[in-house]
């Protein structure tokens, strides 16, 4: 089984981020609040702005890869980001989480979650929240295995009125000095 690792989403990896994000939107369109049609029209500047947001004082983004995959743009197999809440930095949001089908159930999702958790907890966040679409049972199971629980908050899914987005959350332990 391959050993997976995380790479921070930085300007040199902007093309890899774009590739995996568009693949995620195309392969799992109801897993995200955005659409492939919308994001495939982004300019290079818009993609670089997204990368900068993932490298800001309140944001982080990771790509998952493996040395066995040779780290080419086509071989990144997962993505996730995290942002501190602008109004309450004790809260953070896990965003853009996706794992390629060929890497699912191999620990990549948990690795991405742990990476985001570690970064936001290191900046003082005490609660990590996320939204997951009501028809995404594998993602809900992944989040439950990683100690997230339903908060009871739901919202209509913006791209399909027959679906909902559930909020899930977990408390974070603060790093020991």
Overview of the molecule:
The protein has 177 residues and is α+β, with helices and mostly antiparallel strands. It has one domain (4-171): Gcn5-related N-acetyltransferase (GNAT) (Aminopeptidase, 3-Layer(aba) Sandwich). Helices cover 29% and strands 29% of the residues. The chain has five helices and seven strands. The protein has helices at 14-27, 36-40, 44-53, 108-121, 137-145, and strands at residues 4-8, 59-66, 78-84, 91-99, 127-133, 149-156, 164-171. Strands 1-2-3-4-5-7-6 form a seven-stranded mixed beta sheet, with helices on both faces. A hairpin with a 6-residue loop joins strand 3 and strand 4 (91-99). The termini are far apart. The relative contact order is 0.16.
The gross shape turns out to be globular
Mean pLDDT score, rounded?
93
Radius of gyration: 16 Å
Portion of residues within helices: 25-40%
Beta-strand segment tally = 7
Tally of discrete structural domains = 1
Return residue spans where pLDDT drops below 50 for at least 5 consecutive residues. Answer: none
């Amino acid at each position: 089984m391959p050993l997976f690792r995380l790479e921070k989403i930085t300007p040199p990896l902007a093309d890899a981020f774009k590739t995996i994000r568009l693949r995620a939107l195309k392969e799992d369109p109801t897993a995200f609040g955005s659409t492939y049609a919308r994001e495939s029209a982004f300019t290079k500047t818009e993609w670089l702005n997204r990368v900068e947001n993932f490298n800001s004082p309140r944001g982080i983004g990771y790509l998952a890869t493996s040395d066995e995959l040779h780290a080419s743009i086509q071989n990144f197999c997962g993505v996730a980001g995290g942002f501190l809440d602008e109004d309450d930095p004790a809260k953070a949001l896990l965003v853009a989480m996706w794992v390629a089908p060929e890497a699912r159930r191999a620990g990549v999702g948990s690795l991405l979650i742990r990476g985001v958790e570690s970064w936001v907890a290191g900046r003082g966040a005490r609660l990590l929240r996320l939204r997951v679409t009501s028809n995404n049972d594998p993602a809900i199971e992944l989040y439950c295995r990683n100690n997230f629980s339903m908060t009871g908050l739901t919202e209509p899914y913006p791209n399909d009125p027959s679906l909902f987005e559930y909020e899930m959350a977990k408390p974070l332990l603060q790093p020991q000095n």
